[in-house]
């Protein structure tokens, strides 16, 4: 605005100087060319013409300025009313609302008339009012976000707004123009993310899972919480490439694990899973189960892998002890069956001899038959024990 006013004054002075100089010079020449006549009256005409012409020029310049100013006011008004943010003007001394836009009316639930009878303090919950007074009463940088503030609707609902303000003059009064953006959705989303992170940290601490992320294009591997606690690698000792983690896999397992991962990436599988031994920072090995999801980009190529590395050493040790016990039980059953078969064979032989002798001496054969049946049943039991131990699958 100041530039436009200065431009009008500059144009007026420039044209005035030009007209006065040219007019005086023209009258002096005319006076010399007509020595017998008095041409001094032309100075009055020159001044009158100057006033008329300058008045017309000033009128057009002022009209142009007014139209420009009117257009700017209209643009500002459209911006004020059409903004997606709540905008209001408040008096610097009384904090009374001087102007509000339509978003303010819809956001807070008050009518425009009600808002214009209120102060900025009325839009805040009681616990924020004193804080706002202290803020407005001190010198603060303007034009930037001043932080997140709690606001209150007519129905008592409290929500978060991101505020920025500017010094201005409204209808001759020192004022602040305030822009307020509703960020309640983002605040709740952030709170939800924090809750999920807390849940995640709790779950990972209970399950010994370490979440990791790997990008094949950049060969960058990122470990979440828990990797140092479980495997002992401090950040200074921890690499962030695929080669580094592969170098920590037991030599007996590395080729199998690497081939398995390559096949999953090449086939664009949805998931990958593998069990192997991973070396800890102290040189010992732990059994781990590694499972990951493979995420694809818009071109259908593997963009990243997101997985969970779980320490299953306790389970593996238990399985090994169980296998050992099963082997011991199998050996015991096998030895016992063979130990039992020997006396059974002796009994069977003795029975044959006794049976032949009993037929010659006409002895009662019923007792011998009962003993023979018992020996046969015992032999059948031993055979079943042997068959059962042969069918034991120690690996499963």
From TrEMBL:
GO MF term (any one): phosphorelay sensor kinase activity
Span of domain PAS: 72-136
SUPFAM superfamilies: Homodimeric domain of signal transducing histidine kinase, PYP-like sensor domain (PAS domain)
Domain (PAC) ranges: 272-324
EC annotation from Swiss-Prot or TrEMBL: 2.7.13.3
GO biological process: regulation of DNA-templated transcription
Keywords: Kinase, Membrane, Phosphoprotein, Transferase, Transmembrane, Transmembrane helix
Transmembrane segments annotated in the record for this chain: 7-27, 47-65
Chemical reaction(s) catalysed: ATP + protein L-histidine = ADP + protein N-phospho-L-histidine
Highest rank taxon of the organism: Bacteria
Name of the protein in its database record: histidine kinase
Lineage of source species: Bacteria, Pseudomonadati, Bacteroidota, Sphingobacteriia, Sphingobacteriales
């Amino acid at each position: 605005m100041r530039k436009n006013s200065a431009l009008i004054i500059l144009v007026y002075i420039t044209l005035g100087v030009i007209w006065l100089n040219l007019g005086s010079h023209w009258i002096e020449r005319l006076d010399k060319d007509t020595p017998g006549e008095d041409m001094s009256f032309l100075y009055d005409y020159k001044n009158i013409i100057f006033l008329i012409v300058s008045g017309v020029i000033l009128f057009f310049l002022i009209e142009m300025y007014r139209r420009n100013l009117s257009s700017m006011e209209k643009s500002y008004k459209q911006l004020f009313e059409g903004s997606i943010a709540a905008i209001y003007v408040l008096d610097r001394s009384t904090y009374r609302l001087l102007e509000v836009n339509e978003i303010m009316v819809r956001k807070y639930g008050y009518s425009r008339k009600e808002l214009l009878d209120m102060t900025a303090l009325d839009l805040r919950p009681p616990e924020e009012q004193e804080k706002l007074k202290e803020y407005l009463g001190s010198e603060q940088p303007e034009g930037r976000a001043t932080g997140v503030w709690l606001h209150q609707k007519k129905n008592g609902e409290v929500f978060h707004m991101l505020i920025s303000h500017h010094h201005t003059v409204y209808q001759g009064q020192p004022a602040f123009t305030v822009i307020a953006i509703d960020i309640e959705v983002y605040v709740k989303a952030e709170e939800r993310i924090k809750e999920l992170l807390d849940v995640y940290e709790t779950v990972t601490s209970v399950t010994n899972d370490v979440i990791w992320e790997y990008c094949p294009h950049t060969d960058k591997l990122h470990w979440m919480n828990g990797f140092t606690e479980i495997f002992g690698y401090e950040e200074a000792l921890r690499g962030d490439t695929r080669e580094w983690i592969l170098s920590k896999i037991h030599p007996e397992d590395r080729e199998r694990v690497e081939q398995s991962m390559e096949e999953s990436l090449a086939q664009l599988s949805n998931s990958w899973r593998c069990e192997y031994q991973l070396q800890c920072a102290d040189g010992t090995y732990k059994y781990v189960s590694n499972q990951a999801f493979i995420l694809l980009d818009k071109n259908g190529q593997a963009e990243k892998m997101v997985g969970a590395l779980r320490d299953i050493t306790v389970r593996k040790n238990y399985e090994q002890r169980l296998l050992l016990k099963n082997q011991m039980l199998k050996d015991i059953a096998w030895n016992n069956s063979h130990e039992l078969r020997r006396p059974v064979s002796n009994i069977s032989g003795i029975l044959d001899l006794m049976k032949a002798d009993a037929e010659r001496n006409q002895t009662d054969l019923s007792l011998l038959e009962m003993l023979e049946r018992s020996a046969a049943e015992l032999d059948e039991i031993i055979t079943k024990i042997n068959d059962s131990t042969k069918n034991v699958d120690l690996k499963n």
